[in-house]
Amino acid sequence: MTPDELLTTTRSVRRRLDLTRPVPIDLVRACLEIAIQAPSGSNRQAWQWLVVTDPDQRAALGELYRRAVDSYLESASAAGKLFQDEPGRAGVQERVGDSVAYLGPRMGQVPVLVVPCIQVAELPPGNQAGVWGSILPAAWSYMLAARSRGLGTAWTTLHLTYEEEAAEILGLPRDVRQAALIPTAYYTGSTFKPAARVPLDQVLHLDRWGSRD
Fold first, then answer.
1. Where in the numbering of this chain does the Nitroreductase domain appear (predicted)?
2. Domains of the chain
């Protein structure tokens, strides 16, 4: 794939994750070696990575995710309930909602769960961009590297509804914060294409808010 193809066809994979095919740990390590080339604030490289393959650990995290998904699907902010009055978007949103519902009870069955973390003594009360900006680019790099190697991933954070319970399952010290939960597996099928997006000109502002030209 060209860089543009990789960047525009790395999608959240939920329904098409192969729950039966093992993922070699060396393949995950190769993706993480690329991930840690990402930038971090002041070059601290304070990221930490938990790669969860133990069936009991995966099941425990999966149960937290399932509980969070159940609550999410009941909420007004669930993907499938958004933009219902916009014919061009309603169908896409419903498919996203259906895929979240599908993964909900199956997260614990995914062969590898990757939890990107950031080590920080205390989250600042104000500007946290530097903290999360020091782990999120690396996590996205991991997902891109996985895609280029035939692995599917999805960016999920719903388990953080039960952040303390997840931290206990993972044995995290108090100065390590979770950024996401990334299911990782080989995917079924082979077709990935750019997603439908709101046109750039609807979200682009030049110099000041509201300026389009």
1. 9-181
2. 3-202 (3.40.109.10)
